[in-house]
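Memo to structure team: turn this sequence into structure tokens by end of day. - J.P.
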Amino acid sequence: LIGGMNLYKTYSDNKQIIAAEQEVLVKDAINKVRDHIKEKVSMLAAVIYVSDVINVTNDNREQEIILARALAQNEDVSQIVLLDSKGKEIGRQSRLETRNLGQITDERKKEIFKNEKTKETYISKLYIDENVNEPVVIISIISRDRFGDFNGMMLAELSMKSMWELISSMK
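Reply from structure team:
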């Protein structure tokens, strides 16, 4: 009887230790994903505010160069779309094949623009890109003019594959 009680006590103690270790791993994974997304949001916000890319509509070549550089600096970003203050697409740069719109479809652009233009930053739910079978999120960052008025939005498709691999490697 005492041996059985000791065995149960050991089992119970080990179960609590394992649960605590798993909680630490989950919190670590959450922090890494959050930090990854924050880093990408900061880099893309810098593109909006430093280059004023939303307002470079009179020179499409300059806008293309700015967006191409943003893609080059963010290998997890597969495409960037710019919308003006009315929700009209004014620029797009993509690593994707021209026939593949990725997750930033016309329907999603309209939905995000309609619902999220009051928020500084929006992060979509996770999607599985059917073309490459990888997880992606759409980030939107709004642009304001020097008076603080909304003047457009940048949408970026962010691959979460590196985070997926990181989390799956955690034991």
